[in-house]
């Protein structure tokens, strides 16, 4: 299962080519040192991670690797990603699984990633789909919120982010979502817990939370807006739908080609992104089946996507079959022509030999 998920995250990216940085691997790194030349970075060092997740049954402390770099300075302030890894950069690949939704300043973070990548480097993302996790009641992140956080220079999650997260989170799994179960209305954090986290945020602590609730189409829209505004240095090279039964989607972002006119590179990136978005299933609310039962909209959309993929595969198979038939017919025609030419040549040789053996007439 872990190997299959890692393959889905990475896609066609060859992590063995060049050096790699993984952000926030926690206890489940996507990139193992035996697979690629990888460095790890997190908000705090390994000791800080062990202390933060002590007693959490979902995190195996023995599986947390040593962090090569961390963002929190000795004085408690938080550096940027680019500042933390500057001495070791650049990298060919940056991998971030369930990270981008946590970063306080998405625009600043994407610029940091671009800064530590090679000129043609790639950012590989695994992102939780808000529809299939505790974010289900939250509205998707907007470009206005993203730019406000950047203009405010957020180094830690803002009051807005902390409150939206802890006030709205519910106990809701992907299995429940795909089964069509309604999410609970009761939040998973008591109000006293919310107040405690808010007080920590106001005191300057780094209160980890989901800052940016996202879906595949929402992410595409957000990246398109940021490209149009000239705020990001990435083209979206790959963007997947959330698989049935799962709760995350995957994206690969490639640095824009700096040898091209920026406006042209951005326009091309937006055209390619529009195509990726059009290939994604609809994310509309649930529809009703003919007998009046609710059919989850994401399930209908996924079935429609699978049908479209099947039709596309059938079209490719038919095209390949037709090409094979044409090649076969050409080969048969060439063989027939060759045989006819051979037969004619043999006939000519026999005639020639026959003429050579004819007796000469006597004088």
From TrEMBL:
Pfam families tied to this protein: Methyltransf_23 (PF13489)
Entries under InterPro entries matching the protein: SAM-dependent_MTases_sf
Coiled-coil positions: none
UniProt region (Disordered), positions on chain: 317-363
Compositionally biased residues, Low complexity: 334-345
Biased composition (Basic residues): 346-363
Protein name: Methyltransferase domain-containing protein
């Amino acid at each position: 299962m872990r190997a299959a998920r890692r393959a889905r995250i990475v896609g066609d990216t060859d992590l063995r080519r060049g050096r790699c940085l993984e952000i926030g691997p926690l206890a489940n790194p996507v990139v193992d040192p035996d697979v690629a030349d990888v460095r790890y970075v997190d908000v705090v060092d390994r000791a800080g991670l062990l202390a933060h997740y002590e007693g959490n049954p979902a995190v195996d402390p023995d599986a947390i690797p040593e962090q090569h770099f961390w963002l929190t300075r000795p004085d408690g302030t938080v550096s940027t990603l680019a500042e933390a890894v500057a001495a070791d950069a650049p990298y060919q690949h940056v991998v971030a699984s369930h990270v981008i939704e946590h970063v306080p300043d998405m625009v600043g973070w994407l610029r940091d990633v671009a800064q530590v990548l090679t000129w043609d480097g790639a950012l590989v993302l695994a992102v939780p789909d808000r529809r299939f996790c505790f974010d289900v009641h939250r509205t998707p992140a907007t470009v206005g919120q993203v730019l406000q956080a950047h203009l405010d220079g957020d180094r830690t999650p803002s009051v807005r982010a902390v409150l939206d997260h802890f006030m709205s989170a519910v106990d809701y799994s992907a299995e429940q979502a795909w089964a069509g179960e309604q999410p609970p209305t009761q939040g998973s954090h008591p109000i006293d817990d919310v107040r405690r986290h808010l007080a920590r945020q106001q005191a300057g602590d780094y209160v980890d939370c989901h800052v940016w609730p996202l879906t595949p189409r929402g992410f595409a829209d957000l990246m398109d807006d940021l490209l149009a505004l000239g705020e990001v240095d990435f083209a979206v090279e790959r963007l997947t739908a959330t698989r049935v039964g799962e709760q995350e989607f995957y994206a690969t972002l490639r640095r824009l080609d700096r040898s091209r006119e920026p406006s042209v590179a951005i326009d091309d990136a937006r055209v390619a992104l529009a195509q990726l978005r059009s290939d994604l299933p609809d994310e509309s609310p649930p529809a009703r089946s003919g007998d009046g039962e609710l059919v989850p909209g994401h399930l209908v959309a996924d079935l429609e996507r699978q049908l479209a993929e099947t039709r596309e595969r059938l079209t490719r198979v038919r095209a390949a079959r037709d090409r094979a038939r044409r090649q076969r017919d050409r080969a048969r025609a060439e063989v027939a022509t060759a045989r006819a030419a051979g037969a004619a040549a043999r006939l000519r040789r026999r005639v020639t030999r026959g003429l050579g053996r004819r007796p000469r007439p006597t004088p």
